[in-house]
Write a structure and sequence with these properties.
Blueprint: E1 2-4, E2 8-10, H1 21-25, H2 32-42, E3 49-57, E4 60-66, H3 69-74, H4 90-95
Antiparallel strand pairs: 1-2, 3-4
Length: 100
Amino acid sequence: MIEDPYLGKYVTCVSARSTDKEILKKAQDGGIATALMVYALEQGIIDGAIVAGKGDLPWKPRPFVAMSREDILKAQRAKYNISPRFPGSRRQLGLLALTK
């Protein structure tokens, strides 16, 4: 284990980059977060992902549940601001039939 005054304790650091050309078109820094969500959805690991989508104002993203590759790609891009959490609770997420 490595201990660094800035990074804290860690075992290893890695750098990753998506191999999906569509994801890389809008990637901020390799598109790995988007690629991981798409992979998990397509492999049936998750039913959906809570993402920060476009809001009414550029600095106010709107959270929504992405349940398809297209939904995840719509929310792609870094958002450097506070993103509100999903409005609701586990009960409300249950209403969306997310089981994984």
